[in-house]
Amino acid sequence: MLSKIVQTIKRRWIRLWYQPIRVIVFHHVSDERDVLVCQESDWTQLDQFKCNIEHLSQHYTFISLSEACDKLQHDWFRFRKYAVLTTDDGLVSVLNVLPWLEDMKIPLTLFINTRYMTGDKLKPIHMDWLSKLAPDADVKAIAKRMYLSKEQIFEMTSPNIEIGLHGHEHLDARTITESEFEQNIKQCEQLLYNYPRYVSAYAYPWGRSTDASVQYLQKQGIVPVVVDGCKNYVWTGYIHRECIDNVQL
């Protein structure tokens, strides 16, 4: 009972001295949904996406993921609300919003799956539902219009862009061995490490982490990034995110 009271007091004290840093993740954004590229739950109509970001910008100051990590680790107090914008998988549709985000001066962190930069393969879960929806579909054609190429990624020279890890392949950390997880990270890191604004952070596919994988990342100096709908107040060793796909804020 006493420990619960102490934890409640601690949470209230933190929220008194620290305004939150919200870390947002989105996936596909376009005028119209390509039914072979994404499901409706992973997609936001372009105008709705802009409305969502404009709404957030009225209440939060957007900063980069690197700045957020620094603030969480070193702020003695925080009276301004901040937000961080991220996107996963390395999707071509991000090109639909990059010029607008540049005009808005909003930083963006892209978490990349490096296996799909070659444009010849889809992630396993995509293959599963595509095989039911359109079994005769041209997988390579879909992959090319779905994923950014390595050249496109490394040509993103804006100082507002950061690139982080999403694994070589889009794998669930809870369904693979520790060795497979580590290899998946190393392959991804080898291909992205030389990007000028590489950020040493790993976003878990579906936000699904394990204690062992979190410990491995932290030992490697890689910040674990999960999706749990929570806000960030002080440094806890990893980053909380919330998804805004297919919603109206």
Question: Total strand count, please?
Answer: 10
Strand content of the residues, in percent?
15-25%
**Radius of gyration from the CA trace?**
18 Å
Shape: globular
Residue-averaged pLDDT, rounded? 93
What is the rounded distance between the termini? 37 Å
The helix-and-strand class reads alpha/beta
Please, what is the CATH homologous superfamily? Glycoside hydrolase/deacetylase
| CATH fold call | TIM Barrel
- Please outline the major beta sheet: 7 strands, parallel, barrel
Helical content band: 25-40%
* Count of DSSP H/I helices: 9
What is the CATH class?
Alpha Beta
Q: How many independent structural domains?
A: 1
Could you state the order of secondary-structure elements as H and E? Answer: HEEEHEHEHEHHHEHEHEE
CATH architectural type: Alpha-Beta Barrel
Spans where pLDDT lies below 50 across 5 or more residues: none
Give the strand order, joined by hyphens, for the main sheet: 1-5-6-7-8-9-10
